[in-house]
Amino acid sequence: MKLPSLKIGNLTARIPLLQGGMSIRVSTSALAAPVAECGGIGIIGGSGLPAEEIGEDIRKAKTLTNGIIGVNIMYAAMNFYELVMASIEAGVDLIVTGAGFSRDIFKIGKKYNTPIAMIVSSPKLASLAEKLGASAVIVEAKEAGGHLGTDIDLRTLFPMVRKVVQKIPLIAAGGITNGYEMAEMMDKYGADGIQIASRFVLSEECDVSDEFKQTYLNAEKDDIVITSSPVGLPGRAIATPFVKSLARRIDLTAKKCKHLCLRSCDHQYCINERLLAARAGDYENGLFFSGENTYKMKSILPVAEIFRQFVTQAESVYKENCGFAPPAPESC
Ligand SMILES: Cc1cc2nc3c(=O)[nH]c(=O)nc-3n(C[C@H](O)[C@H](O)[C@H](O)COP(=O)(O)O)c2cc1C
């Protein structure tokens, strides 16, 4: 059965699939534009970048596609409001935010008629986001890559949030690697769509070094671990020599902070520099954020082929969307 479209505020994505925002410069217009072109929602990772660069990249994406382009900006970013305003001025369609909670963002979204999607990892924050005016909620579980707000798995967390969010679309994120799992999340758990990220790192279009992609391809299950981030949250990443030395509590303190990128940073190391090292393919020193199930994916594919596979697989098993009703396994 055909997958339903995904409506977020005034936007309609033909395919209910968001590409997760990935900082720093992992999901740029090079990835977001083809995702949007395939009918999904392409998201540029905005955190850790100068506002001008984000504005420019959004404008570039908009010249490449008429599809939906969003930006992901962590509330933990020092220049959060500057990035938000630069994105709106550049004509972004959707703002996705998380890693902290801004009440003001909903007022800004309303003023500029830009839908806000909130990433949450608890029913409490999901319910608050809906009350304050979020146009969608993304439920991000412990299988996700990058910063984590929970240690609860997707299939346990999602129903907890589904019970409290009734009126706006609810999107499932964390560890989804194929269309069968997409259909499972929508059919059985009542998700209105999914967000995936790691699968898109392994796309031809993703703008990271070949070494970054090779690090993903080489990863075995046990190589994907929880580490600590200077933001004060746990993060899921590949156990590179840098991540292993963090675990051994070797002093990697960023002695001088050049970036002033986070509102609150424990200076345990410079996350900005480590993420950029990963992007450049520095296996020894880089922080390669990765979802828990990256080890299951062993191919680099064009974005259009990833979409084709997800949609074909999902539609081969998809029965009906459970809509906004809380999941009732016996009826779905
Ligand atoms: C390399 C990488 C960078 C990420 N950066 C961000 C980010 O800047 N902001 C954010 O909210 N989520 C970030 N995430 C999380 C993703 O957007 C997404 O929700 C999550 O990884 C989904 O799980 P999956 O990778 O297993 O599909 C990142 C994930 C990865 C793999």
TL;DR of this structure?
The chain has 332 residues and is an alpha/beta fold. The protein has helices spanning 29-37, 51-64, 80-89, 104-111, 123-132, 154-162, 179-187, 198-201, 210-218, 241-247, 271-280, 303-317, and strands spanning 6-8, 11-13, 17-19, 41-45, 68-74, 94-98, 116-120, 136-140, 146-147, 170-173, 193-196, 224-228, 234-238.
Rg (C-alpha, Å): 18 Å
| H/E topology pattern | EEEHEHEHEHEHEEHEHEHHEEHHH
Judged by helices, strands and strand pairing, the structural class is alpha/beta
Unreliably modeled segments: 323-332
Enumerate the strands of the largest sheet in spatial order, edge to edge or round the barrel. 3-11-10-8-7-6-5-4
Q: Can you identify the CATH superfamily of the largest domain?
A: Aldolase class I
Number of helices: 12
Distance between the termini: 14 Å
Average pLDDT figure: 94
CATH class wording of the largest domain: Alpha Beta
Number of strands: 13
Helix content: 25-40%
Domain count, please report it: 2
Unique bound compounds: flavin mononucleotide
Keywords summarizing the entry:
8-stranded parallel sheet; 2 domains; 12 helices; alpha/beta; 3-stranded antiparallel sheet; TIM Barrel; 332 residues; binds flavin mononucleotide
Structure characterization notes:
With 332 residues, the chain is an alpha/beta fold. The chain has two domains: 6-206 and 297-317, Aldolase class I (TIM Barrel, Alpha-Beta Barrel), CATH 3.20.20.70; 210-295, no CATH class. The chain is 34% helix and 17% strand. The protein has helices at 29-37, 51-64, 80-89, 104-111, 123-132, 154-162, 179-187, 198-201, 210-218, 241-247, 271-280, 303-317; strands spanning 6-8, 11-13, 17-19, 41-45, 68-74, 94-98, 116-120, 136-140, 146-147, 170-173, 193-196, 224-228, 234-238. An eight-stranded parallel beta sheet has the order 3-11-10-8-7-6-5-4. A three-stranded antiparallel beta sheet has the order 9-13-12, covered by helices on one side. Helix 2 (51-64) links the parallel strand 4 and strand 5. The two termini are 14 Å apart. Residues 323-332 have low confidence and may be disordered. Bound molecules: flavin mononucleotide. The site of flavin mononucleotide has 30 residues, from strand 5, strand 11 and helix 8. Residues 20-23, 26, 45, 47, 72, 74, 98, 119, 140, 143-146, 173-176, 195-199, 201, 289-291, 293 line the site of flavin mononucleotide.
